[in-house]
Amino acid sequence: xxxxxxxxxxxxxxxxxxxxxxxxxxxxxxxxxxxxxxxxxxxxxxxxxxxxxxxxxxxxxxxxxxxxxxxxxxxxxxxxxxxxxxxxxxxxxxxxxxxxxxxxxxxxxxxxxxxxxxxxxxxxxxxxxxxxxxxxxxxxxx
Length: 142
Fold this sequence. Notes:
The protein is mainly α. It has one domain (2-140). The protein has helices spanning 2-23, 28-35, 48-67, 89-105, 109-114, 122-140. Helix 2 (28-35) packs across helix 4 (89-105). The longest helix is centred in the N-terminal third of the chain and has 22 residues, at 2-23. The radius of gyration is 18 Å and the shape is globular. It starts with a helix and ends with a helix. 10% of the residues are buried.
């Protein structure tokens, strides 16, 4: 069962990375062009990533609905869903920090990892900063 799980995870990761590369989400300039709403009046805004996100929702929405009808996932014994449902300070501050990093750099963790070998030093430095942030969070915040 573990081998089947690992193969499914590998294939899902490859598909996700290919989708990120194909959609342009590994290109920080493209992402920043989407996030720059001030460029709308000048015609410099790039709405294409909105279509990428919409397409992802069209797939994920029905998939989550179908998942709720299953007793167990295909490649595991049980579902691993979050227990926490509260909107609290760690969730809000983490979301704000994520959004701030995405807006400043044009990368978030998935595309940064997918782009590790594509753009010289930027993605590896960003991925290292993510790792350091995770370690700092684990050591500073219980």
